[in-house]
Amino acid sequence: MAEQSRTPIIVGNWKMYKTIEEAISFVKELAPAVSKASGRVFLSVPFTAIKAVSDGTQDTNVVIGAQNMNDACEGAFTGEIAGRMLKDAGAKFVILGHSERRHIFNEGNELINSKVKQALLDRLTPILCVGETIEQREEGKMEQVLEEQLTQSLEGITDDQLTEMMLAYEPVWAIGTGHTATPEQAQEAHQFCRKLIEKNWGSDVANQVSILYGGSVKPGNAKDLMMKPDIDGLLVGGASLSTETFAQIVNYETIMCN
Ligand code: PGA
After folding, report:
1. What is the secondary structure of 122-146 as a DSSP string?
2. Catalytic positions
3. What's the pLDDT tens digit per position in 18-49?
């Protein structure tokens, strides 16, 4: 498939870290450090910090988003949060189907599909995560798992809707473990995902959709991963908690290769 230029994008995922005060001082320090980045800079923060940091990043190139949402528009769902509330607080995107949601909170593809559809209705950019466990990889089931997760989580999504979304390949064995997939392993999985999108939604959509890699991304491996043709961006967990490492990853082009 012809390679087309997709704007690089680096997404930080803070998970359940940082108070409002910590979040505000982080973005104050981050914004000037990433102001010259050639790609897009996204930061996915805890619900409580969305309003404060989106207000605090108004005149910067840092875009704020959320890490999860409910699939209903509103309702009697104690403790849940709706996409329109995230939007109201200043979120522009939402991570859906992260492996911690799938494995710790038992979210299945059907629910994730419903969340994707609601996020699109709420005009939030969904970042849909997929990825295999180490057991699935060792049993040679990586492609089968990715195909199942992608086709089921994207069921009923139109061409136009898919071009408004992003995908993230995050092998479960690489998340928070320090075992990054090699650039070749990641490229292989990304290429598989893009071919699957091409098969089901056509080559225009497949060429446009950004596929991010996530799993132990660090300043030392960011550039090598980003050099692969089907890796359009990075989803960064642990290393996004420090302004220094996150800014280095965002500015990966300036990192010298080993
Ligand atoms: P990690 O997390 O960078 O700490 O491995 C990635 C993620 O969970 O998105």
Report:
1. TT-EEEEEE---HHHHHTT-HHHHH
2. 98, 170
3. 999 999 999 999 999 999 999 999 999 999 99
